[in-house]
Amino acid sequence: MSGARLPAIGERTPDWRIGPFDAAALQAYAAASGDANPLHLDDDLAHAIGFPAPPVHGMKLLAAFEPLLCAWRRDLFLARLSAKFVQPVLRGEEVTLSGRVLRSSPEEGVFLRLLAYGATRAPALVGEALMTAPRKFRP
Amino acid sequence: MAGAPESGETRIGPLPVCADEERVMRYRRETGFPDTLEKIVPVAFPAVWMAAPEIDSAIRARLGDADVVPVHESQSFHYFAPLRVDESYALTVSVRQEAEPPRLSVNASVTTIGGEPRLHAETLLRIVPRPACLA
């Protein structure tokens, strides 16, 4: 795939801690992304739905995997990224992101399971990523 | 641009979109990229385009008069080639409603202006009733 050694199956990315995010950070993400869903910004709505605080945008968490993956392997491109948002990370919580290699081959690239969790350590986001060599990912 | 074909899907586009540098850099800052001069479009950046008024209107039309809150259930981005800063693209979106469980499936395709595929993205939004105390 590339001249560099491919990561082995089971290899883990370093844990990557982000947050905690305050109301201003969620407002800033909403402005940058255009996602102004009030669920993330309105305390009353969050309380009424049963959350002690508004949840962080799932997309803010998913997008944050790219800096992690690029720092881990700068020689590979992120070609696919996906996630299920399993349970909310709430405003004010620190979040830990991590990845583990499930498959790795020159032909198919490096397939990782992604996980994000907040203060409870229960999975908040379960995702997948495919990283591939530059020459396989070019217009 | 929006219509409701026989399939029950609402199709929007193609809409012209651009990975303009200011928005790309702002999105990078808000999603934890290092503060460098690197001009790479984040994989999740096309989420920004999903806030287009045409798409928002189609989603609202699908929800009708229901007093509900959309909750992001899942998201995927599948790239065929990377996007480039300051390049223009064509975005085509379809919105489909699912009854059980109630949710919206939003599928987006991005191509170059010349029609070469760049990515496919899928968004699932769970539709949750707004609590009565806020209705």
TrEMBL record, chain A:
The lineage of its organism: Bacteria, Pseudomonadati, Pseudomonadota, Alphaproteobacteria, Hyphomicrobiales. InterPro entries: HotDog_dom_sf (IPR029069), MaoC-like_dom (IPR002539), UPF0336/Enoyl-CoA_hydratase (IPR050965). One of its GO terms (biological process) is fatty acid biosynthetic process. GO terms for molecular function: (3R)-hydroxyacyl-[acyl-carrier-protein] dehydratase activity. CDD domains: R_hydratase_like (cd03441). Residues 24-99 form the MaoC-like domain. It comes from the Bacteria. It holds the Pfam family MaoC_dehydratas. This is MaoC-like domain-containing protein. It comes from Methylosinus sporium.
TrEMBL record, chain B:
It comes from the Bacteria. The lineage of its organism: Bacteria, Pseudomonadati, Pseudomonadota, Alphaproteobacteria, Hyphomicrobiales. It comes from Methylosinus sporium. This is MaoC family dehydratase.
